[in-house]
Amino acid sequence: MKNMKLTMNNTQLLLNHKQNHVYIKIAICLLVIWFTYHFYSSASIQFSSVIVADGDHKLPPPLPPANPTLFDQFPVNNTGIPQGSLECDIFTGEWVRDQAGPRYTNNSCNTIEHHQNCMTNGRPDSDYIYWRWSPFGCELPAFDAKLFLHYMRNKSMAVIRFPGIMCSHCFAFSHRLVEEAIEVYHDEEYRSKRWFFGSYNFTLSVIWSPFLLKADIFEDNDGHSSGAIELHLDELDSVWVNEFTNFNYIMISGGKWFLKTAVYYENNTLIGCHSCNKENVTEIAFNYAYRKAIRAVLDFITKSVMNTSGPNNQSSEPKKRAQFKDSQKPKLEGFCVYTFFRTTTPDHFENGEWNTGGYCNRTGPFKSGEVNMRDVDKTMRDVELEEFENAKELMNGSVLRLFDTTRLSLLRPDGHPGPYRAFHPFDGKDRNAKVQNDCLHWCLPGPIDSWNDLMMNLLLQG
User: Fold this and answer.
1) At CB < 8 A and 24+ separation, what contacts does 420-428 make?
2) In this protein, which residues make up the domain named Trichome birefringence-like C-terminal (predicted)?
């Protein structure tokens, strides 16, 4: 009887111990949740409504760590700012098989633009949608829309530049959210758009500004030009500058439009041109204009941060940078815009360019060492990293983050529409018929969906 009583007491103690252990675990979980909520609440900024996105998908199970490999002849990110998670550079890795496939389809998303709707347009292969980006040394969770929306309630986000690539990001982003978006604005040519998610008071915008600078463009929606672009290298595009304070988060980038024939102006005076072949007009390499544009953009953003970030930046002497007209000087007292600066994405035209018969018919990703960047992409990337480095020296680096999509994009020649930018391009034609190929923009669903996973990681890492 005494032994039985002792056994019962021991059992009761054991149960109490286990119960206390459970309570401790619950308390720790609640504490972690509170810290997370407190961190993002303290980072919240009041704004005027402007952007939107939603998704409801569980995180995938943990994956085994990838084996590191080297990227031959590839300029690495040496800006000195840790990108992504604290454990690794999330932008260095490889594409691995993902049997789960995309989290949306061309049938479940009705906002995919026709030139990116590769499945509807008759692309016969589908292997390109069964890959995901896997960083070396850490796991990259899939985009969690509910978690994202929890922290983005009452906020706004904009994607600024040429929507051919960046709008892909917006569409891929909005497809994965948990509520259908309402389009509340579009410009006359449907290049700039805005969606609103009422349940979260969250707005997502695309602003079309192909040069980020003031530009007079003389071409139609199919890219047919009637004259050289007139580009003002010392004046930012008011289309996005005037909206800048409407956003809490911005994704901004340069791009391939700087390779087009253009006439350059400074102080409203002609200084030269790129590929214009005009007599008595100085030929200027495109990277001169590209550097001027990136520098002016980052300088505008940096000065807006320095005006609002308090004493941490008051002790340093600002470097001499781009000069703005009075109407474009940042006036952002009490407001701060968190900016992702996206690097260039190489195209994959082979045996020609878009207008000389180039094509992209590969059906799987490259492995490291199988492809090198072209000189033009290296030049653009060098400019981006150098100007980003200069900009982050003027600030804490906490509100300007590098979104380095170059490497992961370089490895995906299979992700472009190719001939399937048009609806069933070979109907009534021979399979070898010459048709227009698009090897710059991306199929949706497709590789660009991984950008949302990367952005989510950067947001969670603060």
Assistant:
1) 420/118, 420/121, 420/122, 420/123, 421/115, 421/116, 421/121, 422/115, 422/121, 423/114, 423/120, 423/121, 423/122, 424/121, 424/122, 425/121, 425/122, 426/122, 427/122
2) 140-457
pLDDT at 306: 60
Q: Is the pLDDT of residue 148 over 70?
A: yes
Total-model pTM: 0.73
Residues in contact with 394: Cβ distance below 8 Å, sequence separation at least 6, in sequence order: 302, 306, 313, 316, 318, 319
Give the burial class of 375: count Cβ atoms within 10 A of its Cβ; 0-12 exposed, 13-18 middle, 19 or more buried.
Answer: exposed
What are the b/e assignments for 398-425, b being 16+ CB within 10 Å?
A: ebbbbbbbbbbbbbbbbbbbbbbbbeeb
In the numeric block, which tokens belong to residue 317? 């002497």
Is residue 452 within 8 Å of residue 460, measured between CB atoms? no
- Is residue 233 left, alpha or beta, with left meaning phi > 0 and alpha meaning psi from -120 to 50? alpha
Q: Which of 220-229, 233-242, 309-318 has the highest average model confidence (pLDDT)?
A: 233-242
